[in-house]
Recover the amino acids of this structure.
């Protein structure tokens, strides 16, 4: 990543004028001009009336300032209406800011609203030339790249049909194919990868990975997993302002916690954002037990909220342990070994239907596997009395994990698997290293019950 700045946003604000009825738009266009025309007369009469405003203002963005370095991939995350798409349009130059400015170094290619830059009456082929021209290519340059563009889009004979007859996936294919061949320095994508089939999404992601090695990307999305996977840094927009910016993992964890808390009817005070640290990871369906805890438990360490945590506050996770079957703490785990994860927690009030669980994540914070104590029909619902300390334990065989650092995120909830309330969720409560017994180039490898290669019967032909 270069120290040069590719995108600089300084004090950026955008306001939209909202009119209650069409006539107000005309009044706003005429009345202020009449006031300016008669201003000398008003001054002569010793009066200075102010013209009435026939609109209200909606500020989509307020005082945004940030920089994106050349070669960096930055994610923009936030709820609908937070100002993400407005920001991207201002960076592209398709909107004019109300205040502040945006500076972009190099050629910009953008994939914003589906079909933007296309004329629905033109054929796909004609729209390739139109869209390539918008991005700065000459007709000759487009001619030279046309075959590669059509091959990337892979929409067959539909290329000579009007775009208005295309499905949303076909339109996205064509739009992405064009921006993939315009030699852009800065790429701006607004949730476009959510459209299209799985094959084409993988094709786009492979191309995007290649582009990241040579260009700058501003990526807008709702999915924290995609932000973590693609981006080195993230910016969380909330009601038009920057709520948080930092590493993609830290911002995604915080955003996910706020969204989850809001979905359960909790206030924002239920979320606690701690300093950034580490990542996370876990294994196959373990045996689980939820019992009242003894006075002390070997191999347990106090829980320190290294990452974002949230919950109702009715339960608090106090300690966590990751040990072998003899109770010895594990700091470096090898796949295939039997391990025990224990979570110690205290209920402040009576908790009906308590559920204890965990998630293991990789160093980027991407969930790999996890488990909880909720098993409908297999075990009784656990009710926890008030002021009671409980211990949840999980015994399982650790899968082979790629060498690296992982973290464990424990959580205590109540309710059911589909309808529950989180009481305490602690990101990255415990860190450990993993070494695989056998590296096969995957993130998680589970023990095989059987491996064999035999000669097939017959010639393999289907009759």
């Amino acid at each position: 990543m270069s120290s040069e700045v590719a995108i600089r946003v300084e004090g950026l604000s955008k306001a939209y004028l909202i009119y209650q009825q069409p006539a107000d738009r005309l009044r706003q266009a005429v009345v202020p001009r009449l006031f300016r025309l008669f201003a000398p007369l008003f001054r002569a009469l010793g009066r200075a009336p102010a013209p009435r405003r026939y609109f209200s203002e909606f500020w989509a963005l307020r005082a945004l300032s940030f920089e994106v370095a050349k070669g960096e991939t930055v994610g923009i995350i936030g709820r609908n209406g937070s100002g993400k798409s407005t920001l991207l349009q201002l960076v592209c130059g398709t909107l004019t800011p109300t205040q502040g400015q945006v500076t972009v170094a190099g050629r910009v290619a953008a994939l914003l609203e589906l079909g933007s830059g296309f004329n629905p009456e033109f054929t796909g082929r004609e729209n390739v030339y139109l869209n390539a021209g918008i991005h700065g290519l000459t007709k000759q340059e487009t001619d030279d790249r046309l075959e590669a563009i059509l091959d990337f889009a892979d929409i067959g004979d539909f290329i000579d049909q009007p775009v208005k007859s295309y499905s949303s996936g076909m339109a996205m294919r064509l739009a992405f194919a064009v921006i993939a061949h315009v030699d852009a320095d800065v790429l701006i994508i607004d949730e476009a990868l959510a459209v299209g089939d799985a094959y084409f999404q993988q094709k786009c992601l492979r191309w995007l990975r290649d582009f990241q090695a040579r260009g700058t990307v501003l990526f807008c999305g709702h999915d924290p997993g995609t932000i973590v996977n693609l981006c080195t840094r993230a910016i969380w927009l909330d009601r038009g302002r920057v709520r948080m910016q930092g590493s993609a993992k830290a911002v995604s964890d915080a955003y996910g916690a706020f969204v989850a808390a809001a979905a359960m009817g909790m206030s924002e005070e239920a979320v606690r954002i701690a300093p950034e640290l580490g990542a996370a990871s876990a294994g196959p369906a373990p045996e689980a037990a939820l019992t009242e805890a003894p006075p002390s438990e070997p191999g347990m360490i106090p829980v320190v909220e290294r990452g974002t945590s949230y919950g109702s506050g009715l339960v608090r996770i106090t300690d966590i342990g990751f040990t072998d079957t003899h109770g010895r703490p594990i700091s470096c785990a090898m796949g295939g070994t039997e391990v025990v994860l224990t979570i110690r927690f205290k209920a402040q009030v009576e908790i009906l239907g308590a559920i204890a669980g965990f998630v293991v994540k990789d160093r980027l914070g991407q969930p790999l596997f996890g488990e909880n104590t909720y098993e409908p029909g297999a075990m009784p619902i656990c009710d926890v009395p008030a002021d009671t300390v409980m211990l949840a334990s999980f015994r399982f065989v650790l899968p082979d994990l790629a060498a690296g650092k992982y973290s464990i995120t424990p959580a205590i909830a109540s309710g059911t698997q589909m309808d529950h309330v989180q009481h305490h969720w602690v990101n990255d409560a415990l860190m450990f290293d993993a070494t695989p017994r056998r590296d096969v180039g995957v993130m998680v490898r589970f023990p095989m019950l059987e491996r064999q290669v035999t000669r097939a019967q017959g010639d393999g032909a289907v009759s």
